[in-house]
Structure prediction request, 142 residues.
Amino acid sequence: MNLLYAHGFYPLIDKPARITPETATLIDNIITNVHPSSIDNASIWITDISDHLPVCGQITGLHKPNPQPKPLLKRMITEESLLNFKQQLGLPSFDWCPTFENSDVNMLYDNFLCKFTHCYNRCFPFKRVSNKSNRTDLPWIT
Prediction:
């Protein structure tokens, strides 16, 4: 608990949520760093759906910023672009010889990767796609 407090977190539930004839234990926690003024309610529900009592915390007054959606970029790999990529790698103008002239394996790999990546990026460029979602932010409970 000291570690949680040291980082600004604290528990919302401070009473046992598992009660038996012999014991009462607080093993179901809700830990938060939300300012206490934003906590509307933290409670334990009395019900017999489990051997634990459900715990609940209600936080209000938080405003989620509405960030600008980042553009979604994808590479469109089609049969045609894949064939073009294979042809580009095999073209006589794509000279692999300088790549293999060095005796340092790290330099060989770096040269190979540079040429391969350049060809890959040219044949499969990023395309902007729509990132609209049907998902809505609905409240949830576990």
User: Anything to note?
Assistant: The helical segments are 2-6, 79-90, 105-123. The chain has two domains: 2-59, 72-129.
